[in-house]
Design a protein that fits this description.
Helices cover 44% and strands 13% of the residues. Strand 2, helix 4 and strand 3 form a beta-alpha-beta unit. The structure holds farnesyl diphosphate (FPP).
Length: 230
């Protein structure tokens, strides 16, 4: 969800206004993707590197998470809940940098939405693709150390089982808005054969039409997964 800061700057607004508009775009895209029957959507909301931002910006983003989660609770209480299941991926251990009250709210949200299977929306918070692979490697190393796994028996599947996305299919399409042409530590293992779609649109401006465009382009791609053309 990149480009929030630039979107705000262009309007002479504080960066936090860009993040607020980013949350609106998030809701819009979830609605549209659920309507289209997209089974899995993953949003990069906060990276392990984003803690380097100013304390003001970090707390404003944390406050947006809080607000979003409380709004989810309110919707739940009033039976206005959304159709999608919410999952959070990233380093969300207690005692880490994500405030405990947010951890409690997001675990609650995951549990309450767990019966919805139509569209699974994963939100990456305190997430880094390299750190995710490192965590999976450490878990396997511990099994090897205990004599429960032989190094030569470690498979791709074992690594995948140790990722936050375990049990989910690999992404087919990765959309990066805001003109940057890189993955920025997002789903590094999982993106091995993903199609990439880049756009200059700043995330808060991203609309249903842009999602349609990305999906139309995706439908024209020839995916060979390392094989030759049939
Ligand atoms: C990247 O844009 C955006 C972020 C680091 C934060 C995104 C967070 C939210 C939209 C709020 C929380 C989300 C949910 C789903 C509740 P940038 O700030 O790097 O923009 P720039 O590159 O233009 O400076």
């Amino acid at each position: 969800m990149d480009g929030n800061g630039r979107w705000a700057k262009r309007r002479g607004l504080p960066r936090t206004e860009g993040h607020k508009a980013g949350v609106d775009a998030f809701e819009r895209v979830c609605e549209c993707a659920a309507d289209l029957g997209v089974p899995y959507l993953t949003f990069y909301a906060f990276s392990t590197e984003n803690w380097r931002r100013s304390p003001e910006e970090v707390s404003a983003i944390m406050e947006l998470f809080r607000r979003q989660l409380r709004e989810g609770e309110r919707r739940q209480a009033e039976n206005e809940e959304k159709r999608w299941r919410i999952r959070y991926i990233g380093d969300l251990e207690e005692g880490g940098p994500v405030p405990d009250d947010i951890l409690a709210l997001l675990r609650d949200m995951e549990e309450k939405s767990s019966f919805r299977e139509e569209t699974v929306v994963s939100i990456a918070v305190n997430y880094g693709g390299q750190q995710e692979i490192l965590r999976a490697a450490r878990r396997l190393a511990a099994l090897v150390q205990k004599g429960q796994l032989a190094p030569e028996d470690i498979s791709e599947r074992d690594i995948e089982d140790g990722l936050y996305t375990a049990g989910q299919p690999m992404p087919d399409l990765i959309i990066r808005p805001s003109g940057e042409l890189r993955l920025s530590n997002f789903l590094l293992w999982q993106s091995a054969y993903a199609e990439l779609w880049f756009s200059d649109i700043l995330w808060p401006d991203f609309t249903e039409r842009d999602l349609d465009r990305a999906l139309e382009d995706f439908a024209l791609r020839q995916r060979r997964f390392g094989d030759i053309e049939a």
